[in-house]
Description:
Elements: E1 4-8, H1 12-24, E2 28-32, H2 35-44, E3 49-53, H3 61-70, E4 79-83, H4 88-96, E5 101-104, H5 109-123, H6 125-128, E6 131-134, E7 137-140, E8 145-148, E9 151-153, H7 157-168, H8 176-184, H9 193-207, E10 215-218, E11 222-225
Parallel strand pairs: 1-2, 1-3, 3-4, 4-5
Antiparallel strand pairs: 6-7, 7-8, 8-9, 10-11
Helix pairs in contact: 2-3, 7-8, 7-9
Bound molecules: calcium ion (CA).
Calcium ion (CA) binds at residues 9-11, 53, 55-56.
Amino acid sequence: MKPYILIVEDEASLITLLRYNLEKEGFEVGEAIDGDEALVMARERRPDLMVLDWILPSLAGIEVCRRLRRLPEIKNTPIIMLTARGEEADRIRGLDSGADDYIVKPFSPTELIARIRAVLRRLRPALADEAITYRDLKMDLVAHKVTRDGQIVHLGPTEFRLLRHFLEHPGRVFSREQLLDSVWGQDVYLESRTVDVHVRRLRQALNAGDRADLIRTVRSAGYSLDAS
Length: 228
Ligand code: CA
């Protein structure tokens, strides 16, 4: 699965350059030329990471960033801001508005790609590697295969996505609503009970043969991947 990067930039030549280099490096690229388009596109398909220019027509990058952070389904998407300004105060404002990192123009595509990989490794580790492991659990993202202690674990597509989400954020507790947003998507209206059903199935599959339970139920809060 290729990481999907949404570039928000009004300079056509820069978009062309970034698209060429990112695609060459195995990323899938979407582009928006202003903030409004970016908000629409990000809601239609959640990017794995956004590259957001500070200076955009109509809505400024910093405002786009704030608005994105208010959308429940987008708020965890990593954002790298592109800024022409070198002033420390602006960088801090950028990070305050919810950006995860920034890069000062002019920059080389290689520099941006290195930054993208670093942010993905930090925030979405599953995208930076071909396999994610946790204890004796291994998810091969290329072959779409899960093993525990070397034994194949058979999962349905929803359980696979659910497990992947947990593996991307080990130890973190997610409410049922957060899981519905992240794993099922924003346009799906389901009861939170649905989450319980799929967590139960995931548990049964993972724990077959009396293995230790890797999923922790946090009373009145939700679930997390936690072996302790
Ligand atoms: Ca610009």
